[in-house]
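Q: I have 245 residues here and want to know how they pack in 3D. Can you give me a structure?
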Amino acid sequence: MSKNRPRPSETQRPEAGVRVSALSDLAALRDALKQGAAERERERIAAAKAAREAAAEAELFRREIGDVAPIVAPARAIHGRTPPPALPLQTQRDEQAVLHEAISDEFDPEVLLDTDESLFYCRPGISQEVVRKLRRGHWIVQAQLDLHGMRRDEAREALAEFIRETVKRGLRCVRVIHGKGLGSVGKEPVLKGRVRAWLVQKTQVIAFCQARPHDGGAGAVLVLLQPGSAKQSAAPAERGPARAP
């Protein structure tokens, strides 16, 4: 039985090993704490040194500058800017264009029309040969406007729009039917004189004359317009009314 009992020295060896390991850990912890404390002390010393240097520099700056006083700025006047009134430039341009295109009832065409039985007109600088060609049908009537049954204001607006559109389309020769006045009071043509007065005022009109008998005679005028920028290819489509009575 005595042979199987452990020796005292064998039971003490593991305990001795644990004790040695614990002592090693404590020594490492002590060294780490010492190192941390030393590092903090160095940082404290460096911070204190930087603070002392900054304070010394600030004191040196104050001694060099001396006493200072803030600048007293004079009070500033506040000037409010009043924006200029808005000018309706586009409206003014539109109104001027309307006035430029407007035609008046008070204009007397007799000062410009030749005084023969078939009154005609040609703009200054235009040869009377142009009027003779217009009378002879040199230009085909490409469009016409019939003012029968219209009041004076309606006829004026219709004529202005007709001239504007035909020039835009590039037409050269048109016919305006104002009537002979057979159905009016006193059998006098109401629109005949007005139409001629209005045509004289349109810068797009370079000449006009009384229509030939088969084109309306004394009840219509043939009007020659300024050449437009539109292509003349559309003109043949308007040749239908050229020979209408």
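Q: Anything worth noting?
A: Residues 8-65 form the longest helix (58 residues). The chain is about 45% helix and 10% strand.
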